[in-house]
Structure formats: C-alpha cells, structure tokens
Amino acid sequence: MANRPPILLIDSPSLYFRAYFGVPESAARAEDGSPVNAVRGFLDMLATLIRTRRPDRMVCAMDHDWRPDWRVALLPSYKAHRLAPEGGEVVPDTLTPQVPVILDVLAAIGITTVGAAGYEADDVLGTLSVTQPAPVEVVSGDRDLFQLVDDARPVRLLYVGRGVAKLEDCDDAAVQARYGVPAACYADFAALRGDPSDGLPGVPGVGEKTAARLITRYGDLDGILAALDDPGSGFAPGLRAKLAAARDYLAVAPKVVRVALDVPLPELATALPTAPADPDALLELAHRWNLAGSTRRLVDALADRS
C-alpha cells in the first residue's frame, strides 16, 4: 500500500472556474463561435495532473448544491454575496454552457464524475477522502480543503492557488507553515479569521495571526470559548470582549466551514482508464467543440501510464 499510486480527487468547479478566467475566450472557440475556454483549460489541467502525479484512480467532484440550505440556516450570510437576483449562483453567462461539455468529454473518456443533492463539491471530496483507499490527493484552489489534510492516512492537498503547473503539495507541516495551525484545526481557524469569499464575517478584530495564536494556546475553538468563562485565562480585555460578542456566530460558523465527511454516495468506478471508454463519442465531441488538441493531450497522458 505504501507504494500504491494515489487517487486524485478533483474539485471540478474550482478548476473549471480557474480555467475560464485563465484562458481567453478568443483563444478557444468552437466552429460555431461558442467559447470553450473553460473546457479546454480544464482538460489541459487534468492532462498535466495525470502526467505529473501518475494516479491510478480519479474522481471529479461536482457541485450539485453550491449553497446548501443547511449551511444557510446556520449562517444566512453564507455565500449571500454570490446569489443572483433571480436565484442561483452568479456565474458568467459563457461559462454555464461549458459545464455539460466537460461532463460529456469526461464520460466519453471514462473518468467518473459525482455530486450529491444538498451538498457542495467540497463535501463530496471530503467524503471520498475518508472512504477511498489511500493514498489520496485532493486537487483544489479552495482554502477550506486544507482541513482534509491527514498525514496518517495519508491525504494531501494539491493546492492550485498559483495554477496546476505550480501546485503546492501540502501535508500537515505545510498547513502549519502557512497558517500556524494544524490541518485538523483549520475550520476553527477559518471561523475566527473569517472568509469574505464565502460570506464568513469572522470575529471583528481577529486576523490570521491572532486566530492562530488563540488556537495554539487553547487547542481549538471549544477550548477558546471555555477559557472565556475563566477570569484567570489571560485574555486581554479587548480580545475577551470581541470574542464574547461573537459567541453566537462562533457557535455555528465552524459547522458551516467544516466539510461533510458522510455524504451518501453511490458505488463509484474510480479506476483511471488507459484509453477512452467511447472513442467515437470523444472524436465527435472533439470535432464539434474544437477540442482536438486538449483531448489528444489527455488521452496521451492516460496512455503514458500503461
């Protein structure tokens, strides 16, 4: 098992959003003029990951619910700034039609995709990270997934904040070096610090350094809140007041940040193919959407593993 290749768990929305903004529409269009920049960039990312990480298994997680009701019920501000006036997520008009194309290409190649009603892709990734045989490598540009890092299994995060070509291979030591807290405490850390991109206000006046210092001293958020009730715990009066005022928020925020590890998922075929599952369908898609180069690079990366 120690020498077994990893399973790559792909945060598909994270990668195709990154591809959409990283590849100009003018540089990637189908014959009818439709932009396919997100598709082309996403497929090229997968080819690079397969070529460099050499996995034997892969699953692409999808968002079936980008803003689950159960998270909103706990914290109404959760992703509220990304809510379109007519409902749903604010997504570029030319990105939305590209997602089904991505799914069609992955199906033709034979790479499994999965999502779950009422859960985000993060939750699917979290569940797979604890249920699939290790080693596990999660690929994402979402900081919340640092909490999945677990040296014991092992589970690593391949963080693509600077792109797939410059991904950061993160174990627990890397998380601690980056934030000053172990991966297991990341959700509590994020709740204290806040995250405007997800609508998490954090505790006013508590930034990354203060949040890390509190967790280092008191262990976790429960330890911090317990210490608030101890007059001899050593809190500066101003910080004690800020934390006390945020008690209601701190009671729910970690539950919002924590990735679900128990999403009901079907049995999955995770083995990565060495050749397309449906070559004719892939050829038709490549021709229709002007994806010959990207599909060839992905197919070649798969074949090079054999």
TrEMBL record:
<dbReference type="InterPro" id="IPR038969">
    <property type="entry name" value="FEN"/>
</dbReference>
<keyword id="KW-0238">DNA-binding</keyword>
<keyword id="KW-0269">Exonuclease</keyword>
<dbReference type="InterPro" id="IPR036279">
    <property type="entry name" value="5-3_exonuclease_C_sf"/>
</dbReference>
<dbReference type="InterPro" id="IPR029060">
    <property type="entry name" value="PIN-like_dom_sf"/>
</dbReference>
<dbReference type="GO" id="GO:0017108">
    <property type="term" value="F:5'-flap endonuclease activity"/>
</dbReference>
<feature type="domain" description="5'-3' exonuclease">
    <location>
        <begin position="3"/>
        <end position="274"/>
    </location>
</feature>
<dbReference type="InterPro" id="IPR020045">
    <property type="entry name" value="DNA_polI_H3TH"/>
</dbReference>
<protein>
    <recommendedName>
        <fullName>5'-3' exonuclease</fullName>
    </recommendedName>
</protein>
<dbReference type="InterPro" id="IPR020046">
    <property type="entry name" value="5-3_exonucl_a-hlix_arch_N"/>
</dbReference>
<dbReference type="GO" id="GO:0003677">
    <property type="term" value="F:DNA binding"/>
</dbReference>
<dbReference type="Pfam" id="PF01367">
    <property type="entry name" value="5_3_exonuc"/>
</dbReference>
<keyword id="KW-0540">Nuclease</keyword>
<dbReference type="GO" id="GO:0008409">
    <property type="term" value="F:5'-3' exonuclease activity"/>
</dbReference>
<dbReference type="GO" id="GO:0033567">
    <property type="term" value="P:DNA replication, Okazaki fragment processing"/>
</dbReference>
<dbReference type="InterPro" id="IPR008918">
    <property type="entry name" value="HhH2"/>
</dbReference>
<comment type="function">
    <text>5'-3' exonuclease acting preferentially on double-stranded DNA.</text>
</comment>
<dbReference type="InterPro" id="IPR002421">
    <property type="entry name" value="5-3_exonuclease"/>
</dbReference>
<keyword id="KW-0378">Hydrolase</keyword>
<dbReference type="Pfam" id="PF02739">
    <property type="entry name" value="5_3_exonuc_N"/>
</dbReference>
